[in-house]
Write a structure and sequence with these properties.
With 120 residues, the protein is α+β, with helices and mostly antiparallel strands. Helices cover 33% and strands 38% of the residues. The chain has three helices and five strands. Strand 2 and strand 3 form a beta hairpin. 14% of the residues are buried.
Length: 120
Amino acid sequence: MKHKNALRKHKPNLTKNTDMKKTIVIISIALTALTLSSCGTTRAGALYTDVTAPVAVGSGTGSRVGVSKSTTYFGLISLGDASIAAAKRNGGITTVNTADEHISSILGIITTFTTTVRGN
């Protein structure tokens, strides 16, 4: 008889389930905020991006062009060098007249940053 009474007195622990749901919600909100926090600084749209913007403007355009590129995967892994220095090196440029940045992205899965410099 003791066994039957033990089964009747057992109640599910709803507090643990509620705490787990709260934890999952808090983690989800934190990850979403972390992911979206970089969107405003890179001029990237959430669904699609194809933006070119000036980085530096000087006089003239120059006779040489140098390009550098970096790629970000899922907003988690970034590879490459999209710096002005790398673009100068790639184009054999010593004096930069203009520098532009191009960002392209589809759903934030793969985002490409390209820097183009013109100079001599």
